[in-house]
Design brief:
five-stranded antiparallel sheet; alpha+beta; 5 strands
């Protein structure tokens, strides 16, 4: 039996070649879409009112063959009910949310996220340095998905400060503006917890926006890169070793267009 991380790595590698189809049913009473995508032994369906985010559900089958068979069975059932192919579905501007029962998964990430951020640690829920592996990162993603469901125009850039000071009730958010070693060392001595959480929430927010929307606000992107660079300095000052994960995250985010 493959380990959880081995399965995640395999999913990420085959995700670009996944098969996705979107169908639509419209009559005088309703207008709804149904999207299915499958890769390897995993399939995801996303459905709801046309134009809405919809609900996401993931199913894991016993084998790749069983998955393809199940997907075709689902499609045939929808076609029989009157659903038709929906070529105008805008996958790039659609919003992508996780299945609450499965958690973070490549197949519920925006195609641009899964293509560009294709290392397995981006889906690792146990790696404290990964965007969503820490409690702070995981909570950030969960909260942002909830906020975006309520308001598609949600402002991601102001979210880190609001999350730290309003949602979590901590005294101070430390924006990653002056990230010199001297300033970082001073802040670390007087407010270690808020400094660390400010950085982790900031870069988790940027990765969350890309995972959900396939894009990131320019100001937030700069903030996130600075937050990760300051985290590198913080780790060094605290005597931790060099983090290849953080270094790769910085490089990947810098290269994201």
């Amino acid at each position: 039996m493959d380990s959880w991380l081995t399965q995640r790595a395999r999913w990420v590698q085959i995700m670009i070649n996944g098969t996705a189809q979107v169908y639509r049913y419209a009559d005088e009473k309703s207008d709804k879409f149904w999207r299915i995508e499958y890769a390897g032994n995993t399939l995801v369906v996303n459905y709801g009112k046309t134009g809405a985010i919809g609900k996401y559900q993931i199913k894991e089958c016993d084998s790749d063959e069983a998955c393809e068979k199940e997907a075709k069975k689902f499609i045939a059932s929808k076609v029989k009910k009157g659903y038709e192919l929906y070529p105008d579905f805008d996958a790039d501007n659609h919003l992508y949310m996780d299945d609450s029962e499965m958690g973070i998964h490549p197949m519920t990430a925006h195609p641009k996220f899964r293509t560009h951020f294709n290392d397995e640690f981006y889906y690792d829920c146990a790696n404290e340095e990964a965007p969503f592996g820490s409690d702070e990162g995981s909570d950030t993603l969960d909260m942002l998905e909830e906020y975006v469901r309520k308001d598609k125009s949600f402002n991601f850039t102001v979210s880190p400060e609001e999350q730290i000071e309003i949602d979590w009730g901590f005294e101070t958010y430390h924006p990653p503006i002056d990230i010199t070693r001297e300033t970082t060392e001073r802040l670390l001595k007087v407010d270690e917890m808020c400094l660390t959480q400010s950085d982790m929430v900031t870069y988790a927010t940027a990765f969350s926006q890309i995972k959900i929307m396939g894009r990131v606000d320019a100001e937030l992107k700069e903030m996130a890169i600075n937050a990760m660079k300051r985290k590198v300095i913080t780790d060094e000052l605290q005597g931790y070793g060099f983090s290849e994960t953080l270094a790769k995250m910085i490089k990947d985010l810098e290269g994201f267009k």
